[in-house]
Fold this sequence. Notes:
By secondary structure, the chain is an alpha/beta fold. 25% of the residues lie in helices and 16% in strands.
Amino acid sequence: xxxxxxxxxxxxxxxxxxxxxxxxxxxxxxxxxxxxxxxxxxxxxxxxxxxxxxxxxxxxxxxxxxxxxxxxxxxxxxxxxxxxxxxxxxxxxxxxxxxxxxxxxxxxxxxxxxxxxxxxxxxxxxxxxxxxxxxxxxxxxxxxxxxxxxxxxxxxxxxxxxxxxxxxxxxxxxxxxxxxxxxxxxxxxxxxxxxxxxxxxxxxxxxxxxxxxxxxxxxxxxxx
Length: 224
């Protein structure tokens, strides 16, 4: 994918245990949040459970075009339009269990095996999110929005795989693309979009998918 992998899906597909069990297994913490009251009714609805995702950033490039990688990753992960809406809390730490890497194509290929990134796709495999530097520098011809939005999309797409989500299809020409659509390779008539849609947030907020899935051949699709 990478940002979306057109030929491969890089995320887990099976269900997992409770949010607490998933968090312990993945080196994260999960706690219940206080309830919030809807402004349109008196019904009290629970907020999503909090799952802490601890990550570290690696940049194996040294050019000016990739100098903002860490700040862009951090800003994207903490943006209220992103996966934080599903109850995920992102914390950067040197000893974190997950790595978000920017590297040249051959290094991404080597670290993503057995996936074949063809020297251009990004990937997620296990605790690693690997983004290909050339696409960070210039996006792809298929992407019709600006470069900054592309970088946000790549981060949200690949981290979405880390959270256990799979690819989604374009719902129809003229629709806003799901962030889990492989937008780097083909928009299929959808409008480019760097942020998870409400349905994707709802799916992720169930916290029943295994974090940091390993190699999965084929192209698994998101479950309802």
